[in-house]
Amino acid sequence: MTYMLIASAAVGGILLFLLATATANSPIFSEYYPLLLWLNAAVALALLILVVYQLVRLARQRRAKVFGSLLTFRVLVMFALVGIVPGLLVYTVSLQFLARSIESWFDVRVEKALDGGLNLGRAALDVMLSDLVLKAQVMALDLSDVPPAQQPVALGRLREQLGTENAVLMTSGGTVLASTRTATDRLAPSVPENALRQARLNRGYGAVEPFGEKGLVLRVIVPLNTLALVDEARFLQLTHEVPQSIADYGESVQTVYRAYRELQLSREGLKTIYILTLTLTLLLALFSAIALAFLLSRRLSRPLAILAEGTQAVARGDFSRRAPVTSRDELGILTQSFNSMTEQLGEARNTAQRNQAQLEMANAYLESILANLSAGVMVFDSGFALRIANAGAARILREDLGPLDRVPLSQWRKLEAFAGMLQAQFAMHPAAAWQVQFELLQRLAVLLVRGSLLPGASGGGYVVVFDDITQLISAQRAAAWGEVARRLAHEIKNPLTPIQLSAERLQAKLSRKLDIDDATALHRATETIVAQVTALKGMVDDFRDYARTPITRLEGLDLNRLVADVLSLYEQSGTLVQARLQPDLPSVRGDPDQLRQVIHNLLRNSQDALAGTANPRIEVETAAAPGTLGGQAWLRIVDNGCGFSSEVIERAFEPYVTTKPKGSGLGLAIVKKIIDEHQGTISIENRRPRGAAVLIALPLAA
Fold first, then answer.
1. Helix or strand run (H / E) with residue 588
2. Domain coordinates of the chain in residue numbers?
3. Are 223 and 130 in contact (CB under 8 A)?
4. Does residue 13 surpass a pLDDT of 50?
5. Parallel, antiparallel, or unpaired: how do β-strands 681-686 and 632-639 relate?
6. Sign of dihedral through CA atoms 257, 258, 264, 268?
7. Which of 120, 140, 344, 698 gives 588 a disulfide partner, CB atoms 3.0 to 4.6 angstroms apart?
8. What is the CATH number of domain 373-468?
9. How many alpha carbons fall within 13 Å on the CB side of residue 686?
10. Class of domain 131-256
């Protein structure tokens, strides 16, 4: 398309030059004026078609919202205005100037001047011709009086007297009888046959005739009044050459007058020719300007469009775009700068991505560490608003900490006591680390809480780490009670047997020697000693069992079947026992004898708690615990008895903690120890309006 526009503009320029030359009435191209006119019109039409095609194409691009089309359109409009407005102005002025110029050619004064010049030349020639006619008549009269034989001699004399250039005496048939002239080197003009014929018919002839290439000659022919002696009529011809300057002036005046008449006759046609030529020139110039505007606009807008597309790609995050450098001007420098910028941005992004990937890996590593920490971790900003909390913190506190994100400690409601403790500790230790044990009443747990100030120039915030040490304290207490029980069992059981034997021996030896009353008193005292020793032995055996739990033999077992076997022993107890056992419960890992002891202890505790309760009821439930790591099974025992008192529920799993009038208080302690040996968990809670629930979680065999 570009080459076609250039070729069309070049051909149009050549044809315009030829048309202008033809319009100037050049003899070379004037006869080809119609052909040149049609060729120029064809080129203008071709340029118009190309321009219309480009405009239609640009309009389609604008409708399709092709990038860069708007810029091309604006540049095109600017260039077109620069070309069209001056062109139309020049065209309008040229038309006015042309009309006035052509009209000025045909001014009345110019026409009168040309007529006057032409008449003046004719009058001068007429005067010269009249003078020559008069001389010819005078010579003819004089020659008429001379005998024919002497007429040639008299002819020369008369010519010299009258001052004519050439004189010829001839017959009516054109035969020259005598001739005379002023210069011998100049040939006398020949006698035209038509001039001689007019002289015979009109009794004389006088005219101005061309002579040579540019000369004029005055020719006069008059008859002679000859005597009857002459056989044939004679004629006298006088010729006189018009001066060359007068001939030239007359010729120029004649030529100009003739051209003026031709122009006057073709005035409207001339106007039409000039208007057509000027219109075609304007059209070719306008179409060429618009075509050139297309080329320039595309040349300017293409690199700008490429740069704009590149900037959009950069905005989308694509820094791989490189714009081709097609010139060394400012656009080329701008393109090079853009390429350099995108390259630097790409390198910077790659570096940032690598750093971000490293940071994300570090964050993921830290989050993984925090997520897998059993301890709870909380990070607060300088205003004590929560920023980070790991899963261990939510698990230990048994609260969803998501709603507390970015919430200051002063606005915590569910964990108000815990939040108040943190604020108090940080207030007491504003710049030092601190550690404290905190009892979480709603969980009946003991937390070991540690806090410190994070480093930072303007206060980096605070970090709190806490662990649930309830199990640890319970284990320490159990270990301490186990050690006490072991020592008591060893220290107490050894003297009990000698005491019992000594009492029995005293009774055996002294009962026969005493009277009946003393013997009866001795018997009662001995029985009392033996009974108390037996009770002490039972207590020592309980201590021994607590201190020395049998070795746990873990194996896969059916928890539902084990529960059903134990519940069959309580069918005749008078207490309603309801079992809700989940079908297809996975096997658990445990020791059947120890778990049977656990279930017996819990059922006995429930029966004891149901004493004096109307409609006593015990519910035993098994289920698979959802969402637990490795899988667990639940065993839940619920009764509607008196429940646990607030003093007992906090220390229910410690030895010798009981509300029963009878019993050692080791039942729940032994249950807790067995469940710990099974790597399970046990928890208790009171139910409303009355009753208690014990929940045991055991790991699955798989």
1. strand 588-590
2. 2-105+266-309, 131-256, 373-468, 474-547, 555-699
3. no
4. yes
5. unpaired
6. negative
7. 698
8. 3.30.450.20
9. 17
10. alpha beta
Beta carbons of 71 and 301 less than 8 angstroms apart: yes
Domains 131-256 and 555-699 share a fold: no
Determine the straight-line distance between the first and last CA of the chain, rounded to whole angstroms.
80
> At the top level of CATH, which class does the domain 555-699 belong to?
alpha beta
pLDDT digits (tens, 9 = 90+) for 573-630: 667 888 899 988 999 999 888 888 888 888 888 888 888 787 888 899 999 877 555 5
Length, in residues, of the chain: 702
CB 386 within 8 A of CB 403: no
Name which of 55-64, 193-202, 679-688 the model is least confident about: 193-202
223-227, 258-262, 453-457, 574-578, range with the lowest pLDDT: 258-262
Q: How far apart are CA 655 and CA 484, in angstroms?
A: 11
Distance from C-alpha of 305 to C-alpha of 75, rounded to nearest angstrom: 12
Q: What is the largest CA-CA distance in the chain?
A: 247
Helix (H/G/I), strand (E/B), else coil: 614: coil
Residue 485, H or E segment: helix 470-510
Strand 576-581 vs strand 617-625: parallel, antiparallel, or unpaired? parallel
**Is the model more confident about 639 or about 246?**
639
Range name among 34-38, 158-162, 235-239, 351-355 with the lowest pLDDT average: 34-38
**Separation between Cα atoms, residue 364 and residue 357, nearest integer Å:** 10
Which residues 6+ apart lie within 8 Å of 271 measured at CB?
98, 99, 102
Q: What angle do CA 450, 453, 454 make, to 5 degrees?
A: 115
* Band (695; pLDDT cuts 50, 70, 90): very high
Q: Which two tokens stand for residue 61?
A: 């691009």
Q: Which two tokens stand for residue 641?
A: 């008895």
* Helices first, then strands: H and E counts in the chain: 17, 17
